[in-house]
Design brief:
The structure is a single chain. The chain is of the alpha+beta class. It has a single domain (about 5-255), classed as Creatinase/methionine aminopeptidase superfamily (Creatine Amidinohydrolase). Helices cover about 30% and strands about 25% of the residues. The chain has helices at about 5-30, 35-50, 115-135, 145-155, 250-255; strands at about 55, 65-70, 75, 90-100, 100-110, 160, 165-170, 175-180, 195-200, 205, 210-215, 220, 230, 235, 245. The protein has a 5-stranded antiparallel beta sheet with strand order 8-7-9-14-15. Strands 1, 2, 4 and 5 form a 4-stranded antiparallel beta sheet that branches. Strands 3-12-11 form a 3-stranded antiparallel beta sheet, with no helix packed on it. Strand 14 (about 235) and strand 15 form a beta hairpin. The protein is globular and about 45 Å long. Bound molecules: 2-amino-4-trifluoromethylsulfanyl-butyric acid (MF3) and cobalt (II) ion (CO).
């Protein structure tokens, strides 16, 4: 069953997702070569609790941390560790919170210093594809239209779309119906209605689309060990226009001001 949220619920979801965005912006200020993903996790947990929220991923199905930090060939669900980020890495930082009973969930992939040119293209195209999907997050469009828009944009650039992992509805639960694939056929799938709230989260690989799960039971990596990128927004379906509940502006501003993150 796909829940339709009231305007009040959408405002609460906006607050939750804004807290996620501000947490990710705090990370964008401090991320640099030599910092461990575990220290980013500690920072995120503190920031969330200081702002009245609870980490949304911590203990979710037994997940052990506040963030998912997926480095280079890790796709999603990487577990923060003592491992240090280094120049040339990319890292997807995925963050969830619960605030006033509603979940926020958003992710952003950072480049640590100068990265390979093709990898930089992967980040750019993956982020663009998220917005191509968001353009389809309006009443009357179908999930297949949304998936097609993402898939078409990424495959045109020579990248591949992960199939097994998908976006999802968001509300009082982290994962609600419907599943939101990042691939699809135009005109297929369920029709979107105003008031549905979904997380759109393309996971795009530089090489082949195949993934495998690491022995830790969480980390998903590419089968060919080539890099993967991941961006996620929470979006309320509107009439004629999608309402993006998370916010990359804080993150992008912090990223631009962080001297350690200069892109080529
Ligand atoms: N954004 C991810 C997802 O929607 C994060 C979930 S991590 C988990 O699947 F630990 F909470 F499962
Ligand atoms: Co999600």
């Amino acid at each position: 069953m796909i829940l339709i949220k009231t305007e009040e619920e959408i405002e609460l979801l906006r607050q939750s997702n804004l807290l996620v965005s501000k947490t990710l912006a705090t990370i964008a200020e401090l991320i640099k070569p030599g910092i461990s993903t575990l220290s980013l996790d500690t920072l995120a947990e503190e920031y969330i609790r200081d702002h009245g929220g609870t980490p949304g991923f911590l203990h979710y199905n037994g997940y052990p941390k506040t963030l998912c930090t997926s480095v280079n060939f890790q796709v999603v669900h990487g577990i923060p560790s003592e491992c240090m980020l280094k120049e040339g890495d990319i890292v997807s930082v995925d963050c969830g919170v619960i605030l006033n009973g509603y979940y926020g969930d958003s992710a952003y992939t950072f480049a640590i210093g100068n990265i390979n040119e093709r990898v930089a293209e992967l980040l750019r195209v993956t982020k663009e594809s998220l917005y191509k999907g968001i353009e389809m997050a309006i009443e009357g469009k179908r999930l297949g239209d949304l998936g097609y828009a993402i898939q078409n944009h990424c495959e045109k650039a020579g990248f591949s779309v992960v199939r097994e992992m998908v976006g999802h509805g968001l509300g009082k639960n982290l994962h609600e119906a419907p599943e939101v694939p990042n691939y699809g056929s135009r005109g297929k799938g369920i029709m979107l209605k105003k008031g549905m709230v979904i997380c759109i989260e393309p996971m795009i690989n530089l090489g082949r689309k195949e993934i495998v799960q690491e022995k830790d039971g969480w980390t998903i990596r590419t089968a060919d060990f080539k890099p993967s990128a991941h961006f996620e927004h929470a979006v309320a379906i509107g009439k004629g226009k999608a309402d993006i509940l998370s916010e990359f502006q804080f993150i992008e501003q912090a990223e631009a001001e962080n001297a350690y993150l200069h892109h080529k």
